């Protein structure tokens, strides 16, 4: 199917090269990861939305990150699960389904950067401008920042795929486990220089802007922490200490996302490691989506406090039910 009719609507996914003995273990691993991503992110979001003490800008912004993780994996992993059980010759995908998958993949990547940039701004205001935090990070401002983060991703990805979709296709093999922009413009026999240049600019803009935002905000946060350490534990310092607890969670999530993406990008430069590149492409979606709720759940004292309140209540109810049944 490498050389087929021009603009064919049926494409073939190369997918992962798995042996017959490892097919079902890989399937179970992907399935467990997918189920965990859905349940863990849904549990954290549900806890944040139902507990009044967690309805703070930082946790509400994390809900946006969790929604992005669920979206990025829900539109990708089910197709991967189906393809693992199929022989390579039967891994066919419709062109429009491939476009939707590529759009979701790049939107997931863009939103991971833009939402974390907004979360960095929130931490900067909480620590460096604590007295003005409530007036700056209002509910309306949180909605505006979230909409701006998702809107920026939609525009950037829309232009990215728009430049690729205008090209005529003379190939049908997607040399990847899922569809993305690079795989789509490689199907074309037209000059893809414009799409290629914009793709590089898009990647550079996301990486440089998010890295610059993180470095700038955390430099100011570090300076504020140094100055506050020499002061007495005033109300300002106590507020700063509480806000500081979520900084490590935010930095862990950002570094995890950045390393997952960089491994995938670096392996693109080594064609002899195609299978490692495919594995890294899948891990870029599943690893952050699995670990983000764990990182926030383990490092957030507020989430721990809310969970500790819920667990004793459930135990107490269970104990009362057992006593009543014994009577």
From TrEMBL:
It is a multi-pass membrane protein. PROSITE patterns: G_PROTEIN_RECEP_F1_2 (PS50262). It comes from the Eukaryota. Residues 40-296 form the G-protein coupled receptors family 1 profile domain. The chain crosses the membrane at residues 26-47, 59-82, 102-121, 142-163, 205-226, 247-267. GO terms for cellular component: plasma membrane. Keywords: Cell membrane, Disulfide bond, G-protein coupled receptor, Glycoprotein, Membrane, Olfaction, Receptor, Sensory transduction, Transducer, Transmembrane, Transmembrane helix. GO terms for molecular function: G protein-coupled receptor activity; odorant binding; olfactory receptor activity. InterPro entries: GPCR1_Superfamily_Member, GPCR_Rhodpsn_7TM, Olfact_rcpt. It is found in: Cell membrane. This is Olfactory receptor 4E1-like isoform X2. It comes from Betta splendens.
